[in-house]
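Researcher: I need the complex structure. Ligand is 2,6-di-O-phosphono-beta-D-fructofuranose. Inputs:
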Amino acid sequence: MVRHTATSVVTIERYIIEQESLHPAATGELSGILYDLALAAKMIASKVRQAGLADILGATHSRNVQGEEQEKLDVLANEIIVKAMDHSGRLCAMASEEETDVIPIPDHFKRGAYALLFDPLDGSSNIDVNVPVGTIFSVLRKVTAGSHGSLVDMLQPGFKQVAAGYVIYGSSTMLVYSTGQGAHGFTLDPLLGEFLLSHPDIRIPEHGRYLSVNDAYEQHWSEPVRALMRRYRGLDGKREAMNVRYVGSMVADFHRNLLGGGIFAYPPNTKRPEGKLRLLYECNPLAFICEQAGGAAIDGQQRLLEVEPTSLHQRTPIYVGSKGDVDIAREVLEHGR
Ligand code: FDP
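Model: Output:
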């Protein structure tokens, strides 16, 4: 925890600048992307906070009092991010969970050296019932020639991420990011309207207390996955039982385990042999943050950050969290015990 005094606080802007100064070659472009994302996060947070009041929930085609089309919060969050980021001159293209194809930067704006991928509002089925939701983002360096970005720039393995992060809209709004030098958390002070450094250099415990998995799928899991879950629950007598916590918002489940220790798993099942969660803008960013905090992430067979992506909206199984608990997954899934 960082103690701020009445006259001295560490804002996210100050922190990003300080981190940037550790890299003499830095151009400031990546820092600019992170500020713009922090602004977008504040705008989304304000919409999420008003969600119950502003009548912006429900179907995309519902109408407001002026008779204008109203948007669902996830569609709105998508627009907020696109519009906060498209004109900065720092991105070559974007991709979002909400959009089928790569989102080009309009011709009348300058283009830059980075690609941004994001899930604007993860856990959106929880919005209507006032349960935390989140935004997840991943930044990659452009690898193709020319100024416009393309799908090729997006299809890079997770270890190539130059920055990744998430925002959780919970009892407070927090932004956690990493540029490869640890994972750092900032809490939004609603009075100042600023993200303040609250969790510098987050370290996830080696073994955790919490198991986050939707065990309604148990009947559809393979035998090794069932054996693994029995292990985590202490049913095979080989370890102490973990507590089960499953919010159903990946960001919320991940965040709790990052701070308190544990594992989040979304294994494949016969109904979803590829898993459910998206590799590029859900799993890779959280895996990157987790590794930076001393944790680990696998897809069941290999390190998640080394998976070679083949399509934009590719799904993957995931086991992410405390290193000791992920090691157990690796072992039990490989040997079935
Ligand atoms: P949602 O469908 O509500 O957007 O990203 C997808 C996600 O939520 C995750 O946030 C969450 O962990 C998972 O799906 C929940 O899926 P199940 O209901 O199948 O457990």
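Model: Summary of the prediction. The radius of gyration is 20 Å.
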